[in-house]
């Protein structure tokens, strides 16, 4: 096999309380990429459709993660990469991660799978770092492993795959503005109050327990963020009214997706997810800001070959 086409999914990082550690994988939104093994050594990005991104491998997140793998694998070949980008950069649903993951997943397949999922996550993190100026894997891990993941540590990298309750659906609203991850990280405080830390780690623990026990009510009470959301929500127009609308319509919880501007809600069942999507659509239509709304199952498989 010399060529592979893959679907690299969008993801939601943080999941309210788990800044930089929790994430889950979406089903309906994602990029497509073609990876081709060629004789000419190196990484060659030959096509980018959808958004205007750099072609030089060292300036492109897919290229940087591919170069990290190439340096380690030292194969007797090179790779061409075609990127068909559907996830808008700066949308908050793991656009850079999808690119970073796609190249290394495809190359690994073409090389006969020498690397496991954790090693792929490590390579992809190098690409992600180009976009956000720091290495974190809370979008990458769910894109590679599928479902809900917890990044226990990045150095050394340890990813835990968490159970996905089968009736959980996600609703995403993506206001069409761009928020750069590096900028939305820069506004966060360097220190937090002990009481906030206590609240936050209690919620992370109970959220993980809720996923293990299918306890939707506990899941709902755990989807709270007292550390990051109060700062970042100011960057997202009408965040509070979207959140209130989602909760009023029965969502289990609602928060900022990654570094925003997308907002996610988790819902019990598709019917509730559709109801929440409709209610959010109604209120956001009045703001004059262009937006898109998606309903998605939680994708328990992650990135896949097409
Ligand atoms: N955990 C990251 C953040 C995800 O919130 O900054 C976005 O890349």
Detailed description of the structure:
The protein is an alpha+beta fold and 306 residues long. It is built from 10 helices and 11 strands. Strands 1, 2, 3, 4, 5, 6 and 11 form a 7-stranded mixed sheet that branches. It has a 4-stranded antiparallel sheet with strand order 8-9-7-10, sandwiched between helices. The mean pLDDT is 96. Residues 13-14, 19-20, 132, 136, 138-139, 181, 185, 258-259 line the site of L-homoserine.
Poorly predicted spans: none
Number of strands: 11
Number of helices: 10
Average pLDDT confidence is 96
Beta-strand content bin = 25-35%
Quick structural summary:
By secondary structure, this protein is α+β, with helices and mostly antiparallel strands. 37% of the residues lie in helices and 27% in strands.
Task: Throw out a few tags for this protein.
single chain, 306 residues, alpha+beta, seven-stranded mixed sheet, four-stranded antiparallel sheet, 10 helices, 27% strand, binds L-homoserine
Task: Set down the secondary structure blueprint.
Layout: E1 3-13, E2 22-38, E3 42-49, H1 61-73, E4 78-84, H2 95-110, H3 117-132, H4 140-145, E5 148-154, E6 157-162, E7 168-175, H5 181-186, H6 194-213, H7 216-222, H8 229-232, H9 239-248, E8 253-256, E9 263-268, H10 270-285, E10 291-297, E11 304-305
Parallel strand pairs: 3-4
Antiparallel strand pairs: 1-2, 1-11, 2-4, 2-5, 5-6, 7-9, 7-10, 8-9
Helix pairs in contact: 1-2, 1-3, 2-3, 6-7, 9-10
